[in-house]
Amino acid sequence: MTDDGAPDRERVLLAAVVFAVLFAQVLLYPGIPELVAALGATSSLDAGVWFLGAEFAAFVAFASLWGAASDAAGRRVPFVQAGAVGGAVGYLALALLAVRGDVGFGTAVAIRALQGAATIGAFSLATTMLMDLPGGHGRNMGAAGIAIGLGTALGAPIGGELTAVGPTVPLYAAAAALLLAGAVATLATDRASDGGGTDRTRPREAISVLRDVPALFVPYAFGFIDRLSAGFFALVGTFYFQTAFGLDAAETGLVLALFFAPFALLQYPFGRLSDRIGRTIPVGGGSLLYGVAVIAVGLAPTIDLARLLMVVVGVVGAFMAPATMALVTDVAPDSRRGTAMGGFNIFGSLGFLAGIVAGGLLADEYGYLEAFLAVGAMEIAIAVVAVPALLRIERPAGIASVGDPR
After folding, report:
1. Which of 56, 141, 151, 220 is least enclosed by beta carbons within 10 angstroms?
2. Residue 57 contacts by C-beta under 8 Å, 6 or more apart in sequence?
3. Band of pLDDT at residue 406, cut at 50, 70 and 90
4. What tens digit of pLDDT does each residue of 200-240 get?
């Protein structure tokens, strides 16, 4: 760190950008049924699949393009600003469509995809700028993790309250958050030309590193399934709580926050715990408990029990998530850790998209309980199947077996 403390200041600024993007994204989740109806949808669950899926499909398609463009230009700040402003324009365009009410839901989905394509630029490159900072990847990625956690934890309850005012109000709030993020980014120093990190791993590169380091298949598979369940709760969970228990958007936001808050706050201490006890118990055991908890939410007969179980889901998710990411670092060669983590994020984004699409289709075709059973069963199955592989990975390398802080 320089004498004037610039990296610490920039760390806070860039974490604020990451926070704003996640906060804006989650603001919409509690009010998805009302929002898609305002945008002209006739079947709310199917429409929710398209609306949320369009954004994440754009995330997967455009993240590496933003990274490649910033690397080629040797600058990141203008691209963060462009992504933030473009995302804000997308949110505002959706709000205007809802006000007009005569454009059609297909147009709204197309604009949603464009908004996602822009937003991922601000998110991924702000994260990359954190990687560019001196001071250690642990500290820098810790700042990103806290920002992500706080953004999701606060976005759900605030979004629910805003939806109670009007279904399009979260769209205006999301646009304001991204415009503020773009302004904050101007205060950060551009260090791309210093030879900093990159965040432009392409799907082809992810497959390549997976072929060269087969052990990465284990955290990639867990990351995919874990994010699938997160996408499932973002869409199907919202509809389920409102349909089964008669909750409004504000109440739904508070229920979602019961998951997001412990998930955000406990990741750091649980990540340190995995350094002491190893990855097998948090990753394998955590996934087993997570699957059981997901099924229990679907079986809960009362909203009070469902609320309690959402807290359990959040705690268990925080127990396994940092250990899964740490496992990527444990098994990847030093020279390919960036690509390996990029591949993990790609598989995670694909998992979130799959959770939205598959979860919505299952709930629509068979019912909510069956959808919860299917998602929970996938978590349990991967835990059972992959534990031997986890043990093979951990024992020869001695990962975290004697307090290894890696």
Report:
1. 141
2. 113, 116, 353
3. very low
4. 566 666 667 777 788 888 888 898 988 898 889 888 999 99
Residues 185 and 188: their CA atoms lie apart, in Å, by 5
Which tokens belong to 181? 């993020």
Beta strands in 120-254 (DSSP E): none
Q: What pTM was computed for the model?
A: 0.81
**Residue 162 φ/ψ, nearest 5 degrees:** -65, -35
Contact indicator for 1, 135 with CB cutoff of 8 Å: yes
d(CA 265, CA 366): 35
Tell me if 1-197 shares its fold with 201-406. yes
Residue range 326-341, pLDDT digits in tens: 888 788 776 666 667 6
Q: How far apart are CA 116 and CA 138, in angstroms?
A: 28
Which CATH number fits the domain 201-406, given the four candidates 1.50.10.10, 1.20.1250.20, 3.40.50.2300, 1.10.3720.10? Answer: 1.20.1250.20
Burial class (CB in 10 A: 0-12, 13-18, 19+), 118: buried
Angstrom CA distances, 16 to 10, 13, 55, 137, 169, stand at 10, 5, 21, 17, 22
CB count within 10 Å of CB 30 equals 36
Per-domain residue ranges of the chain: 1-197, 201-406
Q: What b/e string do you get for 238-273 counting C-beta neighbours within 10 Å, with b at 16 or more?
A: bbbbbeebebebbbbbbbbbbbbbbbbbbbeebbeb
CATH class of the domain at 1-197: mainly alpha
